[in-house]
Known about the structure:
With about 80 residues, the protein is mainly α. The chain has three helices and no strands.
Amino acid sequence: MGTEALLIILLVGAVAGWLAGLIVRGIGFGLIGNIVVGIVGAFIAAWVLPRIGVSIGSGIIGSIIHATIGAVILLVIIGLVRRA
């Protein structure tokens, strides 16, 4: 994996984590935490969305949307675990 690919992954993760933090208020983890949540969310979305038959575009915008959906799912699960 090249430096450019790593930078794109971090950028998509950062944007997705930031958007997920806005959507699910009160469960954010700061900039670095949101980047991690966005990257993990991208993996969650890549696993869950095809299994339920959802396909949302391609390219960088599609990647950000997928990662944001996955990050929101992750933040909701973390919020439920914290309350328990």
